[in-house]
Specification:
By secondary structure, this protein is mostly helical. It has 13 helices and no strands. Helix content is 76%, strand content 0%. The termini are close together.
C-alpha cells in the first residue's frame, strides 16, 4: 500500500508540473493585457505593475520564478483583486464550491444507485421503463439546460427556491440538483447494468435457494459487487461535477471556484486562473487515486499490485 501511494505521489508531481507548464505557456502567450480597464493607467504605474508581477523579465526567468513559487505553495497575487493573494481568494471560494459539489455528488450517488437497483430488481416493469426513461432524458440534457427549466419552474412558476445567489441552505438546493442530475442518470444506468449482471450469477441463485428474502439477496449479496462499476464512475463524475460547476456557478451567481475561474479568464487574471487549474489538477488526481484504492476494499480479489 505504501509503495502504491508513493508511486501515485510521484505521478502527481509530474502531472502538476506538466499541467502548470502547458497552462503557463498558453496564459503568457494569449492576447490581452491584465491591466487593461476602462480607465487606462499612466505609463509609470503600468510599468510598476509589470515589475511587480515580473512581466518585465524574460519568459524563461518568469517561468522559473513562477515554478519556484508553485513549489513553495505560493501562486502570487491576483492582477485584478490586488489586495488578495491567489491562495487567499481560493480559500474564500473553496468552501462554497466544496459544499455545492458534495451536495450534488451525494444526491446523484444516492438517487442514482437506488434508481438503478430498483430498476434492475423490477426488470421489464413500468417502474423499470419509467426510471430508465428519466435517466435517458437526464443524460441527454446538459446541466445548464436543466438549470434553465428548474429556475423557471421552482423560482417563477412555483416560487419555492431562490433563482440565484448564496446564503442559506435554500440557495444550495437548486444548483446542487441541476449539477448532479446528469450524473444521477449515469449512475442509475451503470448500477442497473451491474445489478443485472450480478443477479444472474450462481451464488445469487444459491442465496435465493437458501430461502433468503429478495431484499436480503440484493443488499447483502448482490449490491457490494454491483456497486464496483459505480465506484469506477465516481472519479470521472467528480471531474465532471467540478468542471460543470463552472457553468452552474455562473448561472446561479454562486461565488465559488468555478465562478472565479470564469471571471479570471474574462479579466485575463493569469495568477488566479493558473492557481485554480493547479487546484483542479491536484483534486482530480487525488480523487482518481482514492477511487482506484477503493477497489481493494470493495473486492477482496483485487490486490494493490492490480491497481498500481
Amino acid at each position: 500500500m505504501i509503495a502504491y501511494f508513493a508511486k501515485r505521489f510521484v505521478w502527481l508531481l509530474i502531472t502538476v508540473w506538466v499541467v502548470f507548464t502547458v497552462t503557463w505557456i498558453l496564459a503568457n502567450n494569449s492576447p490581452g493585457n491584465p491591466f487593461t480597464s476602462e480607465k487606462s493607467f499612466p505609463p509609470e504605474i503600468e510599468a510598476n505593475l509589470r515589475r511587480r508581477y515580473n512581466l518585465d523579465k524574460p519568459p524563461l526567468v518568469r517561468y522559473t520564478l513562477d515554478l519556484g513559487n508553485l513549489v513553495r505553495g505560493d501562486m502570487g497575487v491576483s492582477t485584478k483583486q490586488v489586495d488578495f493573494t491567489v491562495n487567499e481568494l481560493i480559500s474564500l471560494c473553496w468552501p462554497v464550491s466544496a459544499a455545492l459539489g458534495l451536495a450534488a455528488l451525494a444526491w446523484a450517488a444516492v438517487v442514482g444507485l437506488v434508481a438503478g437497483v430498483v430498476s434492475a430488481s423490477r426488470r421489464g416493469t413500468l417502474a423499470d421503463l419509467s426510471l430508465m426513461s428519466l435517466a435517458t432524458v437526464g443524460i441527454a440534457l446538459p446541466n445548464f439546460v436543466i438549470a434553465g427549466f428548474a429556475i423557471l419552474l421552482f423560482s417563477f412558476l412555483i416560487p419555492l427556491l431562490p433563482p440565484a445567489g448564496w446564503g442559506s441552505p435554500r440557495y444550495l438546493l437548486l444548483p446542487a440538483f441541476c449539477l448532479g442530475a446528469p450524473y444521477a442518470a449515469y449512475i442509475a444506468r451503470i448500477a442497473r447494468t451491474g445489478m443485472l449482471d450480478v443477479l444472474s450469477q450462481d451464488y445469487i441463485r444459491t442465496a435465493r435457494a437458501k430461502g433468503l428474502s429478495r431484499l436480503a439477496v440484493i443488499m447483502k449479496h448482490a449490491l457490494p459487487t454491483a456497486v464496483i462499476p459505480v465506484v469506477s464512475f465516481l472519479g470521472p463524475a467528480v471531474a465532471g461535477i467540478i468542471t460543470g460547476s463552472l457553468v452552474i456557478e455562473k448561472v446561479f451567481a454562486i461565488p465559488g471556484i468555478g465562478y472565479s475561474f470564469v471571471q479570471s479568464a474574462i479579466d485575463n487574471d493569469t495568477p488566479m486562473a493558473m492557481g485554480i487549474v493547479v487546484l483542479y489538477t491536484i483534486l482530480l488526481f487525488t480523487m482518481n487515486t482514492l477511487v482506484d484504492a477503493a477497489y481493494t476494499w470493495l473486492d477482496p480479489r483485487v490486490s494493490w499490485e492490480d491497481v498500481s
